[in-house]
Amino acid sequence: MEMLDCEGVCDPICVNVGGELYTTTLDTLTRCRDSMLGAMFTGQIPLLRDRNGNFFIDRDGKPFRHILNFLRCNSLDLPGDFTELALLRREADFFQIRPLLEELESREAQPRGGGGSGGALLSAEVDSQERVLHFNYKRKPENYELRSCTVRVHTAHVFCTSHALIELLSSSFSYRTGAVSMAPEPGRMDLQLEWVPCPPELPTEQHIRHGFRELSTTQQSENSIYTQGNSNTSTYGSGGVSISDTPSFMAELLRVVMAEGFRIDLVSPDPSDVLNCRRLRCVRY
User: Fold this and answer.
1) For a Cys staple, 191 with which of 76, 158, 209, 274, CB 3.0–4.6 Å?
2) Under 8 Å between Cβ of 187 and 224
3) Is the peptide bond before 200 cis (omega within 30 degrees of 0)?
4) Residue 63 · residue 88 · CB < 8 Å
5) DSSP class of residue 182?
6) Could you report the per-residue pLDDT of 90-147, keeping only the tens digit for each?
7) β-strands 279-284, 263-268: how paired?
């Protein structure tokens, strides 16, 4: 590796990024001096050279063209048929070009029409654990007995590069504690959920006392691939459908994201059983 001596570097500079050769200036490469790219060309990070003496960076070379153009013009001008927004964001994140990251986040946060537009990546992980619960059951005044039952604690973590989709997913689900409903609180790029359906043998007041919350959709999902013909689902009045387990959560998640133009990219552990998967990845180009 070579420690770059900026005083001894003359323009133009040739940079080999993953096999793609670019010719530019030191001023362009160091336009964002607090970035990883700026650190590379101000001598703070050692650089490699290829066999022809060009500086070499082991990253995807094609999106680097748009990074250079952004640094040159301070604007992001992409072709109308550009389909690699998620890839460009990943490279901008690696090089830590903050103004470009902010521009990409701004584009992803713009409201989308039906079917969605613009590239985005979504991943979801779900888990389910049994928990034995002990509680006092009041049979008569001054007459209590200790009872036990099993509850199932479900969790879901959804990450998406589109903040707009995270907001949409948050509005698609509702926590219920007794008769009280509450919308989940989303993060900037993620949504974390935990819910515990109330089994018949557990009194509602005990379910509430232990801080458990049920989960439902915010609207009746008549076209859901899970609710059709499934007698285990229940509705809350004229509102949404109870999310009784992780398969019903995955079904509602897919209903929302596929309507926004996403397609399934990865299902684990069994690619043939999407509703019972533990990890799901979807992409929109």
Assistant:
1) 158
2) no
3) no
4) yes
5) E
6) 999 999 999 999 888 877 666 554 445 568 899 999 999 999 988 877 766 666 788 8
7) antiparallel
- Asked, as a colleague might, if the bond just before 269 is cis with ω within 30 of 0, I would say yes
CA atoms of 26 and 11, how far apart (whole Å): 7
Q: Which two tokens stand for residue 48?
A: 């490699």
Strand 279-284 and strand 190-195: the pairing is: unpaired
Q: Whole-angstrom Cα distance, residue 114 to residue 109?
A: 15
Distances (CA, A) of 274 to 103, 156, 163, 168, 205: 34, 15, 24, 21, 35
| Exposed e or buried b per residue across 185-206, where buried means at least 16 C-beta atoms within 10 angstroms of its C-beta | ebeeeebebebbbbeeebeeeb
Written as six digits, the tokens of 76 are 């992001």
**Looking up tokens 């999407």, which residue turns up?**
274
Q: Let me know if 2 is exposed, middle or buried by CB neighbors in 10 A (0-12, 13-18, 19+).
A: exposed
Nearest residue to 95 via CA among 59, 50, 43: 59
Contact 210/197 with Cβ under 8 angstroms?
no
The enclosing H or E element of 161 equals none
* Bridging pattern class, strands 55-57 and 48-49: antiparallel
Give the tens place of pLDDT for each residue, 60-88. 999 999 999 999 998 888 887 777 888 89
